[in-house]
From TrEMBL:
Residues 164-499 form the Peptidase A1 domain. It holds the Pfam family TAXi_N. The keyword Signal applies. Keywords: Signal. This is Peptidase A1 domain-containing protein. Residues 148-175 are annotated as: Disordered. The lineage of its organism: Eukaryota, Viridiplantae, Streptophyta, Embryophyta, Tracheophyta. One of its GO terms (molecular function) is aspartic-type endopeptidase activity. InterPro entries: Aspartic_peptidase_A1, PEPTIDASE_A1, Peptidase_aspartic_dom_sf, TAXi_C, TAXi_N. The active site is at 182, 380. SUPFAM superfamilies: Acid proteases. Belongs to the peptidase A1 family.
């Protein structure tokens, strides 16, 4: 423990032989390889956006990625108007719904979950969802017959967006919409006018001269496959089942999608949601979903001829910092990604999967038999906590608790059973945790922000992993663990890549 080590070092300096000092130094190095120190005060909410810790390279195309409810969002309200941060327990209940959805998808079950329709949980706790999601601002449409309502200060992200060589996105008349990145869904959609809200911040297709609904016999409509939902007035209809039950549905059409001042996709296909019963996915400041799944309808599939079939993103360590979403393979730069093969399971072709084969804690590989990682892990941008097969989680928990024995344990919080009371502790010495994937030395060390969740009012912190109920269900690599790591989804080369300290 760093706080304890300091007086010890002083004692040695004052009264001991040079050999003892050498021993202490070597021990310190050893410790640095095994432990990382987290300043708990940095986990408290901040009212100011501090931007990017690391500015993404100008190569390729990227846009800022941020928490839609955090201070980096153009529509953030600070001070007293700041949305009350959700409790850890609330966040976890929502997260469990997402994990259940991913597990169902992984097993080839795409129906709406029983009992989750309009459950009071997701209406009341809509903000919690935003908390664990990451959004980007994009513009829909390019020419409107009458003034469209703009959402938020549209130019706010142009200071650091995209190619960033000065030309302002303000000149693009598209309607700015905040969309949540979803690597586990295929059909991009946004909320459209008409909508039920009094002040409707949504895109109005009837005013966009570049919008067209797909006729029912069009190729695009046929390509909807299992997302097809019939035909109304010869307009193609789509339907998507979202995370916790309610659906998004409406007309399937196309318009110009502007990512930044250098990158626009004409004829971008998306769903125009008119279903105000879509609950969790339209709450707060989110206007829709940017689907990045492997299906033929996703942004990736649509943009592959221009950008190559690849994207990456980096989730910032804190709400008050920005990450990025990049389309295409990062070019030029000395990008060193740790890579592992991208796997496919025919029951869930939309999902990105990779073979997780081991875990290490404080530099020591856990003793987990390979059978305990039978199913390939799913990478998800919207699940918060990483889910591990039961046996693997048990081994991780035991090793972690062992290394954290100096701290006071606290009661479990929902499914997280390894929690600590950090009252009076500012610097927490955490054992380093690394995930080992299949491939040549594919070891991904997690950031210090990717190990614990908590740090709220009650000084509570919990190991940000939970267990699946068995060893057969796939692990889910959640977004807490992905923090600060650029996660590359290179469909063209069939690789998943990880680059540390990218944001
Ligand atoms: C959505 O859920 C409904 C009802 O469970 C189901 O019939 C339908 O096939 C699902 N749609 C998709 C695209 O999976
Ligand atoms: C679709 O239907 C329209 C009119 O109903 C027809 O003119 C057109 O040729 C059809 N297109 C295709 C691709 O079948
Ligand atoms: C951008 O790409 C070019 C060529 O592809 C390369 O020469 C340059 O070093 C790259 N710059 C950065 C900052 O990555
Ligand atoms: C955490 O520990 C402090 C100091 O021992 C104690 O006062 C406090 O009640 C504990 N908090 C919880 C939630 O147990």
């Amino acid at each position: 423990m760093a706080v304890v080590a300091l007086p010890l070092l002083l004692l040695l300096l004052l009264g001991s032989s040079p050999t003892a000092l050498v021993a202490v130094a070597a021990d310190g190095e050893h410790e640095a390889a095994q432990f990382t120190v987290l300043d708990m005060t940095l986990l408290k909410p901040h009212d100011a956006c501090s931007g990017h810790r690391v500015t993404p390279s100008q190569n390729g195309s990227w846009v800022p990625l941020y928490h839609p409810l955090g201070p980096c969002s153009p529509s953030f309200k600070g001070g007293a108007a700041r949305a009350k941060p959700p409790s850890l327990a609330d966040l976890l209940r929502q997260d469990q719904l997402r994990a259940r959805h991913i597990h169902r998808m992984a097993s080839g079950d795409f129906r709406v979950s029983k009992g989750s329709r309009k459950s009071p949980v997701w209406l009341e706790e809509s903000q919690i969802h935003n908390k664990q999601r990451m959004g980007i601002d994009v513009k829909y449409g390019s020419q409107f017959s009458r003034q469209q309502v703009m959402h938020g200060p549209a130019a706010a992200t142009d200071d650091d967006g995209g190619g960033g060589d000065g030309s302002s996105g303000e000149s693009s008349p598209g309607v700015t919409q905040t969309v949540v990145l979803d690597t586990a869904s295929d059909v991009p959609w946004i909320n459209c006018v008409p909508c039920a809200l009094a002040e409707c911040p949504y895109y109005d297709p009837s005013r966009s001269t570049t919008y067209a609904a797909f006729p029912c016999n069009s190729t695009a409509c046929k390509q909807l496959g299992r997302y097809a939902n019939g035909c109304v007035n010869n307009q193609c209809q789509y339907r998507v089942n979202s995370t916790s039950g309610p659906t998004s549905s409406g007309t399937y059409g196309s318009d110009v999608l502007t990512l930044d001042s250098h990158n626009a996709i004409t004829g971008f296909k998306f769903g125009c949601n008119n279903n105000d019963n879509n609950g969790d996915d339209s709450s707060g400041n989110n206007n829709g979903i940017m689907a990045l799944g492997r299906g033929a309808q996703s942004l990736m599939a649509q943009a592959s001829s221009t950008y190559g079939n690849a994207f990456s993103y980096c989730i910032p360590p804190r709400d008050s910092e920005k990450g990025f979403f990049r389309i295409g393979v990062p070019g030029g730069a000395p990008y060193m990604f740790v890579t592992t093969p991208m796997l496919t399971d025919r029951r869930s072709p939309s999902l990105y999967r990779a073979a997780l084969v081991g875990i290490s804690v404080a530099g020591e590989r856990l003793n987990v038999p390979p059978e305990a990682f039978a199913a390939s892990a799913v990478l998800d941008s919207r699940t918060a906590l990483t889910r591990l097969p039961l046996t693997a989680y048990g081994a991780l928990r035991a090793a972690f608790r062992d290394k954290m024995a100096a701290y006071r344990r606290a009661p479990a919080t929902e499914e997280m059973d390894t929690c600590y009371n950090f009252t009076g502790v500012r610097f927490v010495k955490l054992p380093k945790v690394a995930l080992v994937f299949d491939g040549n030395n594919a070891v991904v060390e997690l950031d210090k922000y990717g190990i614990l969740v908590g740090g709220g009012e009650d000084d509570h912190g919990c190991l940000a992993f939970t267990a699946n109920s068995n060893d057969a269900a796939p692990a889910i690599l959640g977004n807490v663990q992905q923090k600060t790591i650029e996660v590359l989804h290179d469909v063209a080369d069939r690789n998943i890549g990880f680059r540390r300290l990218a944001c």
